[in-house]
Amino acid sequence: MTTHQTHAHAPDIRAGRLEPEHYARNFSEAVAPLSAGQAVLEAERCLYCFDAPCATACPTSIDVPSFIKRIGDGNLRGAAQAILEPNPLGGMCARVCPTENLCEAVCVRNTQEERPVAIGRLQRYAVDALLASAQPQLFTRAAATGKKVAVLGAGPAGLSCAHRLARLGHQVQVFDARPKPGGLNEYGLARYKMADAYAEQEIHWLLDIGGIEIQQNWQLDSLAQLQALRKDFDAVFLALGLGHTKTLGIPGEDLQGVQDAVDFIATLRQTEDLAQLPVGRRVIVIGGGMTAVDVAVQNKLLGASVVHMVYRRGPEHMSASREEQHWAQTHGVVLHHGLVPQEIVGHNGQVQAVRFVQTQSGREICWDADTVFKAIGQTLGNPVLAASGLRMQGERIATDSVGQTSLPGVWAGGDCRAGGQALTVDAVAHGQQSAHAIHAHLGAQ
Length: 445
Known about the structure:
With 445 residues, the chain is α/β, with parallel strands linked by helices. The chain has three domains: 13-29 and 246-377, FAD/NAD(P)-binding domain, CATH 3.50.50; 36-131, Alpha-helical ferredoxin (Fumarate Reductase Iron-sulfur Protein, Chain B, domain 2), CATH 1.10.1060; 148-243 and 380-444, FAD/NAD(P)-binding domain, CATH 3.50.50. Helices cover 35% and strands 18% of the residues. It contains 17 helices and 19 strands. Strands 4-3-2-5-19 form a five-stranded parallel β-sheet, with helices on both faces. Strands 7-15-9-10-11 form a five-stranded parallel β-sheet. A three-stranded antiparallel β-sheet has the order 12-13-14, with no helix packed on it. The chain is globular, with a radius of gyration of 23 Å. 45% of the residues are buried.
C-alpha cells in the first residue's frame, strides 16, 4: 500500500528564501568559544587522572590532563604546545571531532557528575589563543636532510604528514586536486561547525614552518604520473580521500534535482553570499551519517520548508552520533528509519518524489521532493591505484599499522586507507604515523 500518491508539480527551487540578516545568524558557529573565565572554571573540573582514559581515547594521543592543567595555570601557549605537538590540526579537531564519542565519553566526571569536562571546547580555547597571539609559531625545522617526499592530497592526513616531515628536515611537495588546500576541512564540513575562514588560518599557520610547497589543481589520472613520483621523490604518501559518492542503484537517480551531498556542502562552503544559493522547498536526504545530518540541517537553515532524512536501518546503526541526530531534529529535520529507497520519481526530467519501502511491513511510502541528496558514503573510485599494483582491501588501500602499502616507498593514510573511523582526527593520526615511518625509512637508506 502507498501512503501518498504523488502528482506532477513545478519544482520549487530558488535562492533568497530568507531575509538577508537570517543567513548570518543561521550560519554562525554552533558552539560558542569559551571565555577566559569559563575556560579556567572548566579546567578546574579536570581530575588530572593518572593514565588518563581521555588521552588513550584520542587517536592522536593528546595528553589531555597536561594541556588542561596548563590552561588552569594560565599557560595558554604551553597548553597549545601540548595539543599541537601530536596533532598539528588540533584547532580543527576541537571543532569537528565527535568528542562525545571519544575523549569526553570516557571522562571520569561522567560517573561523578554525569557531565564530562568540556575537553573539545578547552582544546579550541588554547589553540585559538595561540593563533591570535603575536608569535603563533611553536615549531622549527630540523637541519635539511636533502630528502624529498611527495604527498598526494592536502586534506587532514596529507597536511599532518607534510607538517611532521617538514619538522624532521625533509622537503615536501603536496599535490592536490582542489583550487584550495584543506580537503574536507575546507570543502566538506558544515558551515556552522567552522565559521569564517578558520581552515585557511590553520593551514597558513601549518605552512609557516617552511619546507612545504603545495601544487593545486593536480589530478592523479595516469599510472605514469604515480611512477614518475616514485622515481623523482624519495617517498610518496597517498592521502587522496574518497572522491566518488556511492550510487543508490535505483531508477531516477539521474534526474535533475538529485545531488551528491558532498558536492552541495562544498558549494555552500565556497559561496560568499548564501542568499544566492538555490534551495528546494521540499528536500529528501538519503543516508544516516554526519554528512547526511550536515546537508539536511543546512538546507533547513537556508529556508527549506520540509526536510526528510531517511535511513534504511534503525537509529542504533546510524554513523551519525546521538548528538548529531538530536541536532538535526532540533533544527526541524524529520528523521525516518527502516525505509529503503525504491525509485526517484520524475516528470519532464525533474525530480518529483521518492518512493520508499518499509523494511518491517513492506508498505510503500512516497514523498514529494524538489531536491534529493545522496549521502550514503563514498568510494576511492580511482582506477590508477589498483592498476599500480597497490593491494586493496575492499574499496580502500591496504596498509600495515603505520600506513606502509604493498608498493615499496609508498605509504597511505586518511579515508583512502583501509580501517579507521573516517574522522578528521583519525586522518591526522595516520599522517603522523606515516611521517615517522617515512622518516625512519629515509634515515635507513
